[in-house]
Write a structure and sequence with these properties.
Strand content: 5-15%
Strand order of the largest sheet: 2-8-9-7-6
Order of helices and strands: HEEHHHEEEEEHEEHHHEEHHHHHHHHHHH
Distance between the termini: 45 Å
Mean pLDDT: 95
């Protein structure tokens, strides 16, 4: 039996109540004329919120923090972080607020969090604002990631503020309302550890266990269990990124969640032509977070989490380090297992083919894609047709398909499953040129291109007539692509 969503919104304030040392009570910037630009009605229903309430006169006020829901206690969260390898002891929500927590219709607790809601004590000289384009980028990318099956924060709504934001030019302002299992980060633990208060660190760890990994609460060593669980979650997440060709762009420790969800869609992008060295972020000039470096970056970040947890792992420092080192040693195996399983499915091989053979075939194929600068998403999607006896769409992606033909001869005898491949290889991703087209139109007030793009990428495995341009690669005149943080 379906249950009608309540007519009002009620939030909790668990994080603010349990960990007041890690946040600052704060109010969102008051807006003159907030207007709803886009609303994720499906997500609203999942949260038990009636979309008509959010579309009503109070909806934009609620979604920007200008009307505080019952039970909420908005706070700016404090955290530290290594940014491109350099430690910053005090970062925090410089332009964001945790409104509170909401229990969805599935009984799960989720954060409701605002981005672009004004300066906070953690703003570090920034204006605390956000422009329409970057907030809509996160809306598109996070909902696409969710549809692709990768754990992620979700986007509930983007609201125009009615005020201008000054960057290189004057841009219309916006606030993003996003939802996550929590906004606990590696940087949150670094911040707590830096206080020197082991009691606070323990309370934070207990909070994280209760919210994300309750199965380790009764273990003999629950904090070791927490570290191992986060390692497993992050290994699986980054493998998912690699399998769909996603480049996060800014994998700082303050952008790595304890839950294992993708967070902070700033200078991110999906690859067009396969390139292990792909970097899109304007601030990643050294390629620290290039596509192929993402597993290494994740492991490095997890080592920083382990360092923060040392006082909880064992009272003896040397033994604590040994425990942390052993736990971190499992990352590579966890990642390799997750990637190998996913890669095997991408080329349609079932259990009758051993993992070593499957991984070898995938790595051979990736080497060909790199050498011939072949579109990553198009190639894997077209392989299902090759498995069904129609190799031409895939062959046409190569200027000289001779080497690819040789690979086909080694692959086809393994009887690849075309249906399996179409379940894991998307037809539609947020193509960079289409994202930019949608954002430019939205900034000028036309949201129709954005709606069409969101419709395509939130049903990525279902090929539909009329969406051919959403499956096509970038036009030749699109040029080198670069993304920006938007702050």
């Amino acid at each position: 039996m379906s249950v009608s969503p309540p007519a009002t919104v009620t939030l909790g304030s668990r994080f603010a109540r349990e960990l007041p040392e890690l946040c600052t009570p704060w109010e969102a910037q008051k807006l003159r004329d907030p207007r709803l630009l886009v609303l994720n009605e499906r997500l609203a229903h999942e949260l038990g919120v009636d979309p008509s309430v959010l579309r009503g006169p109070d909806g934009p006020l609620w979604l920007t923090g200008n009307l505080v829901p019952e039970g909420a206690a908005p706070v700016a969260q404090g955290y530290a972080g290594h940014q491109f390898g350099h430690y910053s002891p005090r970062l925090g929500d410089g332009r964001a607020l945790l409104l509170g927590e909401i229990t969805g219709v599935d009984g799960e607790l989720r954060d409701v969090h605002l981005k672009g809601s004004g300066r906070t004590p953690y703003a570090r000289g920034g204006d605390g604002l956000a422009a329409v384009g970057p907030m809509l980028r996160e809306y598109i990318l996070s909902e696409a990631m969710h549809a692709l099956g990768a754990p992620t924060t979700r986007s509930l709504a983007v609201v125009g503020t009615g005020s201008a934001v000054h960057r290189e030019t004057e841009l219309p302002g916006a606030v993003l309302a996003r939802v996550a299992s929590s906004h606990l980060r590696v940087g949150t633990f670094q911040y707590a550890r830096a206080t020197g208060d082991d009691g606070l660190l323990r309370r934070l760890a207990d909070h994280a266990i209760d919210r994300h990994y309750p199965e380790v609460a009764g273990a003999e060593h629950p904090y070791v269990g927490l570290l191992e669980a986060v390692i497993t979650a992050q290994a699986s997440l980054v493998a998912r990124w690699m399998l769909v060709g996603f480049v996060h762009g800014v994998m700082n420790t303050d952008n790595m969640t304890i839950s294992g969800e993708t967070i902070d869609y700033g200078p991110c992008a999906f690859m067009d032509a396969y390139n292990p060295g792909a970097v899109y972020s304007s601030i990643d000039q050294g390629g620290r977070y290039a596509y192929a470096n993402q597993p290494l970056a994740a492991r490095w970040n997890l080592a920083r989490l382990a360092e923060a947890l040392l006082p909880l792992l064992h009272e003896d420092q040397e033994q604590a380090v040994a425990i942390a080192t052993e736990a971190l040693g499992g990352f590579d195996d966890e990642y390799d297992a997750a990637w190998s399983s996913g890669a095997k499915a991408k080329i349609g091989l079932r259990d009758h083919v051993d993992g070593h053979t499957a991984s070898g075939l995938v790595k051979e194929l990736l080497a060909l894609l790199e050498a011939h600068e072949v579109d990553y998403t198009q190639l894997f999607r077209s392989l299902s047709r090759a498995a069904s006896g129609a190799p031409e769409p895939a062959r046409e992606l190569f200027g000289d398909p001779a080497e690819f033909d040789g690979w086909l001869e080694r692959w086809l005898p393994h009887r690849p499953d075309a249906a399996l491949m179409n379940q894991v290889n998307p037809a539609y991703i947020p193509r960079n040129h289409l994202v930019e087209e949608a954002l430019a139109s939205a900034t000028d007030g036309d949201l129709e291109p954005l709606h069409r793009l969101v419709d395509a990428v939130t049903r990525p495995y279902e090929e539909r007539t009329g969406l051919e341009r959403y499956a096509a690669g970038a036009p030749e005149d699109f040029g080198a692509y670069q993304t920006f943080c938007g702050t």
